[in-house]
Design brief:
The complex is a heterodimer of chains A (about 120) and B (about 110).
Chain A: E1 3-7, E2 11-12, E3 18-25, E4 33-39, E5 45-51, E6 58-60, E7 68-73, E8 78-83, E9 92-99, E10 107-110, E11 114-118
Parallel strand pairs in A: 2-11
Antiparallel strand pairs in A: 1-3, 3-8, 4-5, 4-9, 5-6, 7-8, 9-10, 9-11
Chain B: E1 9-12, E2 18-23, E3 35-40, E4 47-50, E5 64-69, E6 72-77, E7 86-93, E8 101-103, E9 107-111
Parallel strand pairs in B: 1-9
Antiparallel strand pairs in B: 2-6, 3-4, 3-7, 5-6, 7-8, 7-9
Classes of the chains: A mainly beta (about 120), B mainly beta (about 110).
């Protein structure tokens, strides 16, 4: 059974940094395209980032470009999202998800999400 | 970064069929057959219902079906059941600037 477990969400002040983790079991991160998606409670899903199967290629939403960095540690079978220069509007629940079709957004496995709150 | 356009709400009675639309552009829905649909119940993670416009992952009932015409995709839920009451989101691959995936704003489906 595929399982994704996010962690690392916390309360942080504007301008601060956080690193989110997404530990995978039942799948090998090095063989899958993976995404980060966020959701403000009560609002819609927003795509954040994706990383390809060998970790050589990443894409980011406009709001994340230059501030967020997706990476993976194949030895730990874990995906990461380094978030720097955080803004109040980055407050959301962050999900990691596995894509079944080459990074197209066909995400068939999701974690439970980890909450990030950016406030002073 | 523009979201795909979905109606904010839809409703139907048990046993009826409901269709939710997802309007995109020539950079996403209109160009690629990488349209997905997700169901999300309150407090839960999204669940993939449809991918590549009309394919169902194993375990998803055939009451859920997807289609596409031009720049608009659609999700049809047939034989509505009480447990279908949830939020539904479409997504598409896009070649617009950096972004590779775009979501719709979501549709709250109410079973009357």
């Amino acid at each position: 059974e595929v399982q994704l477990v996010e962690s690392g969400g916390a309360f942080v002040q504007p301008g601060g940094s956080l690193r989110l983790s997404c530990a995978a079991s039942g799948l090998t991160v090095s063989s899958n395209w993976l995404h980060w998606v966020r959701q403000v409670p009560g609002k819609g899903l927003v795509w954040v980032s994706r990383i390809n199967s060998d970790g050589s290629h990443t894409n980011y939403a406009d709001f994340a470009e230059g501030r967020f960095t997706a990476s993976r540690d194949n030895t730990k079978n874990t995906l990461y999202l380094q978030m720097d220069s955080l803004r109040v509007e980055d407050t959301a629940v962050y999900y990691c998800a596995r894509d079944r079709v080459l990074g197209s957004g066909s995400c068939d496995s999701w974690g439970q999400g980890t909450p990030v709150t950016v406030a002073s | 970064q523009s979201a795909l356009t979905q109606p904010p709400s839809a409703s139907g009675s048990p046993g009826q069929s409901v269709t939710v639309s997802c309007a995109g552009t020539s950079s996403d829905v209109g160009r690629y057959n990488y349209v997905s649909w997700f169901q999300q119940h309150p407090g839960k993670a999204p669940k993939l219902l449809i991918y590549e416009v009309n394919k169902r992952p194993s375990g998803v009932p055939d009451r859920f079906s997807g289609s596409k015409s031009g720049q608009t995709a659609s999700l049809t839920v047939s034989g509505l059941q009480a447990e279908d009451e949830a939020d539904y989101y479409c997504s598409s691959y896009t070649d617009s600037t950096h972004n590779t995936v775009v979501f719709g704003g979501g549709t709250r489906l109410t079973v009357l």
